[in-house]
TrEMBL record:
Monomer. GO terms for biological process: hexose metabolic process. Signal peptide: none annotated. Its main location: cytoplasm. The keyword Isomerase applies. It is found in: Cytoplasm. InterPro entries: Ald1_epimerase_CS, Aldose_1-epimerase, Aldose_1/G6P_1-epimerase, Gal_mutarotase_sf_dom, Galactose_mutarotase-like, GH-type_carb-bd. Mutarotase that catalyzes the interconversion of beta-D-galactose and alpha-D-galactose during galactose metabolism. Beta-D-galactose is metabolized in the liver into glucose 1-phosphate, the primary metabolic fuel, by the action of four enzymes that constitute the Leloir pathway: GALM, GALK1 (galactokinase), GALT (galactose-1-phosphate uridylyltransferase) and GALE (UDP-galactose-4'-epimerase). Involved in the maintenance of the equilibrium between the beta- and alpha-anomers of galactose, therefore ensuring a sufficient supply of the alpha-anomer for GALK1. This is Aldose 1-epimerase. GO terms for cellular component: cytoplasm.
Length: 344
């Protein structure tokens, strides 16, 4: 125990590695639970307007759920989150080949990625720090990368996440957390009002890969600037599975810019997302189909949650006009994101 952080066992991987869970609490009865497997957000428990607490993230009660096949619930995705076209890129005149684990494209770091390793972990004051060293050549990427993700729960009900990384060779980096949120607990997201402060987005092809265009949201289904109830919109968004799975270009990116807001009027819960990244991927869990058993035996059906993944634009390594994802030796990657819960 260190302050309001407790540490407990959360099982052992098939390789014999112990996994720990860290439980952080604040004065408002908000609780953040993290596990060292994938540097994962395992739970965020938040009171509603009447003081009733619910877990507002999707996931699993035991390690077995995270060890099995699942859609990146709560994990840190990397070395490069989102998609890289055809699993290839060129950097400084050399071509690199990665695994294609999402149709014709590379997704969220590849066959294993940062999300399926046990990270080193430590309690540092009021924070929990996770560290993972990715070997030169892992998943096909160049350079040994040392990544650190630090979580803190503030008394302002803010889950604060700081990402840092260094490398021994030039390499693309794009870390994000892939938490699935539902401010109602275990239900659909149809009664949520989503606002995204973005006047442009990056259109995608049939394989959900960015085409390279940067298009205005004005007059489209991707205009979420005024707040849209998901039940009125999400099933109209075209795709292999109707719903959002899109990168939005934050209108005024900055060091701690408010980029998105989710509201659930019935519970009184609101979540605000701030970041220093140029984009945010909004995904409405359109591929969940009820076959995945989650916390408390809940069946996660289509649109059971939503993700707001702060990031560099997808496939930036292959699109020079996008914000750069390249990290070079001597530089430090720094990504800051926070999820603030406004109660009542």
């Amino acid at each position: 125990m260190s302050g309001k952080i407790s540490v407990e066992d959360f099982g052992t991987t098939p390789e014999g590695q112990a996994v720990q869970r860290f439980v952080l609490r604040n004065n408002s009865n908000v609780c953040l639970k993290l596990i060292s497997y994938g540097a994962t957000i395992q739970a965020i428990e938040v009171p509603d307007k009447d003081g009733k607490v619910a877990d507002v993230t999707l996931g699993f009660d035991t390690l077995d759920g995270y060890l099995g096949k699942h859609p990146y619930m709560g994990v840190v995705a990397g070395r490069v989150a989102n998609r890289i076209a055809k699993g290839t890129f060129s950097l400084d005149g050399q071509e690199y080949k990665l695994a294609c684990n999402n149709g014709p494209n590379h997704l969220h770091g590849g066959l294993k990625g940062f999300s399926h390793y046990v990270w080193d972990s430590s309690v540092e004051g009021d924070s929990v720090k996770f560290t993972y060293v990715s070997a030169d050549g892992e998943e096909g990427y160049p350079g040994e990368v040392t990544a650190q993700v630090t979580y803190k729960l503030t008394n302002d009900n803010e889950v604060d996440i700081q990402y840092q990384a260094t490398t021994t060779k030039a390499t693309p980096i794009n870390l994000t957390n892939h938490a699935y949120f539902n401010l109602a607990g275990h239900a659909t997201i149809y009664d949520h009002i989503i606002t995204i402060m973005a006047d442009k987005y990056t259109p995608t092809d049939d394989d959900a890969l960015t085409t390279g265009e940067i298009s205005p949201v004005e007059g489209t289904l991707w205009d979420l600037r005024e707040g849209v109830r998901m039940g009125d919109r999400v099933n109209s968004v075209p795709g292999k599975a109707p719903g959002y799975d899109q990168n939005f270009c934050i209108t005024q990116p900055g060091d701690n810019q408010l980029c998105a807001r989710a509201q659930h009027p019935a519970s009184g819960r609101t979540m605000e997302v701030r970041t220093n990244q140029p984009g945010v991927q909004f995904y409405t869990a359109s591929y969940l189909d009820g076959t995945l058993a989650g916390k408390g035996g809940a069946k996660y059906n289509k649109h059971a949650g939503f993700c707001l993944e702060t990031q560099v634009y997808p496939d930036a390594i292959n699109k020079p006009h996008f914000p750069s994802s390249v990290l070079r030796p001597g530089e430090t990657y720094h990504h800051h994101t926070s999820y603030k819960f406004v109660l009542g």
